[in-house]
């Protein structure tokens, strides 16, 4: 299988202009998302997974629209609810119905309308590692014996953890809208990987940019 792990494009939070922890993309980020659409234009894609946060869905949307595929929302790929991030604790998080209403091309891959999809605050790094590992075992592993092409959109913390599960070597930092491609054989072993940022051209964001 080919697994593409993609960090969301530049968000309003990245530039200090977000009015909530669920802020969307900046104009710069929206242009980066179009660059992602162009990157995947001639690449077959079977399935798309995304964090349920707005900035990540907005990043995945252009590719999903182009491929005429739904976006499967994976709460495990949600942002790190760090103990210092009090806005994540205090935010009145959108309901599943709210999210689907705003992004009708999306659907939670598992959950019921009454479930809390966001992580319980506060989290430790091990909590993030555990939920991303769960996502890998429950979702990604089922594609390993196939020739599927799977796209996973997430945040700096969760894409970083997912990459470390696939191959032990750490490949951080990753710019907004950066792409990592992994080739995984039927035994679950990574036999090749590569980072792509050239598709961003002048829209490459600072590697040391603020997280979120």
Question: Which helices and strands occur, and which strands form pairs?
Answer:
Elements lengths: L1 E6 L19 H13 L7 E4 L3 H14 L3 E3 L12 H5 L5 H7 L3 E3 L16 H14 L10 E6 L1 H11 L12 E6 L5 E7 L16
Parallel strand pairs: 1-5, 2-3, 2-5, 3-4
Antiparallel strand pairs: 1-6, 6-7
Helix pairs in contact: 1-2, 5-6
Largest sheet: 7 strands, mixed
CATH architecture call: 3-Layer(aba) Sandwich
Number of helices: 6
Q: Identify low-pLDDT runs.
A: none
Number of E-type strands: 7
Q: What is the fourth-level CATH superfamily?
A: Phosphoglycerate mutase-like
What's the average pLDDT? 92
Overall number of domains? 1
Helix/strand-derived category reads alpha/beta
As a whole number of angstroms, the C-alpha radius of gyration is: 16 Å
Task: Classify the helix fraction into a percent range.
Answer: 25-40%
Order of helices and strands: EHEHEHHEHEHEE
**Under CATH, the topology is which?**
Rossmann fold
Adjacency order of strands in the biggest sheet: 4-3-2-5-1-6-7
Summed up, what is this model?
The chain is built from six helices and seven strands; from the N terminus they run E-H-E-H-E-H-H-E-H-E-H-E-E.
Description:
The protein is an alpha/beta fold. It has helices at residues 27-39, 54-67, 86-90, 96-102, 125-138, 156-166, and strands at 2-7, 47-50, 71-73, 106-108, 149-154, 179-184, 190-196. The chain has six helices and seven strands; from the N terminus they run βαβαβααβαβαββ. The radius of gyration is 16 Å and the shape is globular.
């Amino acid at each position: 299988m080919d697994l593409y792990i993609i960090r969301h494009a530049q968000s309003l939070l990245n530039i200090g202009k977000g009015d909530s922890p669920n802020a969307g993309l900046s104009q710069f980020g929206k242009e980066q998302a179009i660059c992602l659409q162009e990157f995947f234009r001639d690449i077959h894609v079977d399935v798309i997974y995304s964090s349920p946060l707005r900035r990540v869905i907005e990043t995945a949307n252009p590719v999903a629209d182009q491929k005429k595929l739904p976006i499967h929302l994976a709460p495990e790929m949600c942002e790190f609810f760090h103990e210092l991030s009090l806005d994540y604790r205090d935010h009145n998080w959108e309901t599943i119905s709210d999210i689907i209403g705003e992004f009708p091309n999306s659907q939670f891959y598992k959950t019921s309308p009454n479930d809390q999809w966001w992580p319980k605050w506060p989290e430790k790094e091990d909590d993030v590692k555990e939920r991303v590992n769960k996502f890998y075992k429950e979702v990604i592993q089922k594609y390993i014996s196939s020739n599927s092409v799977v796209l996973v959109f997430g945040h700096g913390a969760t894409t970083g953890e997912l990459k470390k599960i696939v191959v032990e070597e750490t490949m951080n930092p990753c710019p907004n809208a950066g792409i990592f491609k992994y080739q995984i054989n039927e035994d679950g072993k990574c036999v090749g990987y590569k980072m792509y940022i050239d598709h961003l051209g002048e829209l490459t964001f600072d590697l040391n940019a603020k997280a979120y």
